[in-house]
Structures are given as C-alpha cells and as structure tokens.
Argininosuccinate lyase
Amino acid sequence: SSNQMWGGRFAAGPDAIMEAINASIGYDQRMAAQDIAGSRAHAAMLAKAGIITDKDAEAIREGLLTVLSEIENGNFNFSAALEDIHMNVEARLKEIIGEPAGRLHTGRSRNDQVATDFKLWVRDQMDAAIAGIEALMKALLSQAEAGAEWVMPGFTHLQTAQPVTWGHHMMAYVEMLARDRSRFMDARKRMNESPLGAAALAGTSFPIDREMTADALGFDRPAANSLDAVSDRDFALEFLSASTICAVHLSRLSEELVIWSSAQFRFVTLSDRFSTGSSIMPQKKNPDAAELIRAKIGRIFGANTALTIVMKGLPLAYSKDMQEDKEQTFDAADNLMLALAAMEGMVKDMSANTESLEAAAGSGFSTATDLADWLVRALNMPFRDAHHVTGTLVAMAESRGCDLPDLTLEDMQSVHEHITEDVFGVLGVHNSVASRTSYGGTAPSQVRAQVARWKDL
Ligand code: ARG
C-alpha cells in the first residue's frame, strides 16, 4: 500500500530496504515530547490566526495530550512504515480525533517541524550539560577547599617541576569547566531562535504568527530567514564541539586519576563505588570509571566529526542527509552527561593521600627553582647564573643519591662561596608553595582566593 501522508502521488509503497534506510523512528522517538509541544504551539497559533477553528484546535490539543501519555506510558505502537516521530504522532492523532488531525500540518512542513523538535531537544541537553558541569565544579571546589595547603608535585613533561598545592590542581579543572560551561551558555543563546513557520523552505501564504509559536516554545524570536531556518544544524555542531572540548578536559582529569591511583603513585584512593576488581588478581582495584570517561572523547569527537561532514556541501535547503544529525548527537549527549556524572561521583568520593603527596612533592629536586630564586634575591645573582649554580648543586645531590636539603652548607659553598645557612629556609616544599603568591599562583592564600571567586559559581 502507498503512504498515507503522500499516497496521492504514489502507486506503490517502498521497498523493504528503502523503508529500512529511510526510517528514523528507531531513534527520533526520543523527540516525542518536543514534537508534541511544537504541534500544540502550532495548533494554538493556527486557531488564534483564524486559520483553523477553535473547535479543531481544541480537538488537536486534547488528542496530542492523549498521544503524549500513550508514549510516556509505553503503550504507543511506533511504526517504521510511518518513518519518523512526526508522522507517527500525526497518524495516531488522526486515529484518535479523525478529520481535524489533517488540519494540523497547515502552514508547516516536516522540515521546520524537525528543526524545531531537534532544537528543543538540543537546548535541553545544553541545560543538562551546564547542570552536570556545575555539579562537577562543586565537587572539585570542595576538594580544593579541603586541600588548599596539601602539597604535591607539579609536573611538566610528567617530570617533577615545582611543588604545587592539591587545591591549586583542583582549581585548574574548575577553570576549564567554567569555560566549558560558558561555551554551552553562549551556544544556547545563539541557537534560541524558532524555525517553526519556515515551512518547507519558503515560508507560507497562511497568515501565521511566528512570534507566537516562538514565544510558546521558549524561543527568543523566530529565525529570520526560512531557508536558513530549515537548513541550519549549527546548533548541534556547536553542542558537539562544546561537548568535545569538555570531554577533552574530562579525559585529561581521568588520565591523572588513573596515574594517581596506581601503586607507584598512590596520590589518591578512589572509592569502591567507582572502581572494579579483577576476576583473577585478588589485589586489583581498577579505576574503570576514569578509564571509560577518558575514552568517551572518542565517540563524542566522532559525532562532532560525523555531523560536520554530513553538513558540508549540502545545498540549501533541507536534504535527507540531515536526518543523520540525530543519532550521533543523542549518543554524544548521553555519553557526555554520563561522563560528567561519573566524574562528579569519583571526585566527590576520592581521598587524597596527603603523606604520599607530600613525600612526592619533595622528591626530584622540586625546589631547585626556589634555590635559584634565593641566589637571585640574597646574592643579587643574575637568574641565568643562579640557574647554573643550582644545576651544579642538583648534579652533586644526584650523584650522592640525596635531595637538595640533604646537602651540607659546605657542599653548597664548594659550588658558590657566598651561600649562607638561610638557603635551607627555601628548600622545603611548604615554604616553596607558600611563596608563590603571585595572582593565580599555587600559594594556599591564592588558592583560597580562587575558591572564593567561584563560591556562587
Ligand atoms: N525524519 C526527517 C529528519 O529527521 C524529518 C524531515 C523529513 N523531511 C523531508 N522533507 N523528508 O530529518
């Protein structure tokens, strides 16, 4: 049998393979609530504009609510023959209310309909991402507040660089996440224009009120150009690229947690709730959540790449290629939210092993820069010379298998005669971090100021 939506033009129905490649109902049923909200707004507007009767609009409204509850209660029969969520909803509406259902699509096309539904869906995900990021920021802020004074090694090249504070390290991620959040907020503002009423591509000859439907759906205004409105998927691309960058940050933190929780580092203990064991090695406690979050970037960036490539080269206006926008975006959104929630749980639950952190902070000649800075300050040495003297002292300590504070004053003076006892005051890790009071630095006082700045997020 031919299609009930366009059967007039068609003598035969689609091949089974055509139906399989064409149907999106398997995934776009996730936009049912958005589709029904869009249709309700459209129907109410059609009545207000005198395009359909109030009586028909009321029947449509009631019928759509019935369809929605059927879907929500899981007793809706989705049909692949009806392709997508739009036609499934409309066909069911027709079964329930009869003739008025056929008036709903006046002055509208599936092209503006799908753009509207998808935008509403993505807009919710922007909000969910913002909320998930904020929850994680809070977990990191508590860690930072608790550990504003705990010293740990700071690395460059994953080699000991200078001591930093635990709180400082946590706050670095708060800054990254704050930028992630602002990317979602910014994209949300830009995307919040309604495609509804753009119709197929050219607008409509019916006296529709696009302001009214835009307003009803929480959009700031109608999209200004009907060709653009049905062709635009920038909002999904922005969501995916903001998600990609956020996932990069989550992946970097995950990598650190994997390293830090190893027996060789012992910087943190992850909770049992976010770890798994081994079926053969009884001692194992694996940081699986961190590893999986580290991997999520793969599919999120994959979705970003896939949709970017789908969109490139498409002529205006709608092409069916654009149906491929949804699965990727759904998958990326699901996995971003999951990764944010898992990271929040892990960060909340993890405990820093302050003794291991402190011991590690002092190893690897981590205060060599403090020694060089002391030579500059106390002896008025040019920094380059101080660097050289300190390097010689590091080499001496290394050859003796000890750390810088273990050298004697005589050892020091054999390299530079004017070094005094005072130098030992700067070789401790606590002095080192406390001295780094420049704005944004690692000193506990600066970390507390950083935490205070994010108090209200
Ligand atoms: N299922 C389609 C999609 O997701 C809806 C729009 C169909 N429009 C059309 N002209 N065939 O893009």
The mean pLDDT is 96. The pocket of arginine is lined by residues 24, 28, 84, 110-111, 114, 318, 320, 322-323 (CB under 6 Å). The chain is about 60% helix and 5% strand. The two ends are 58 Å apart (CA to CA).
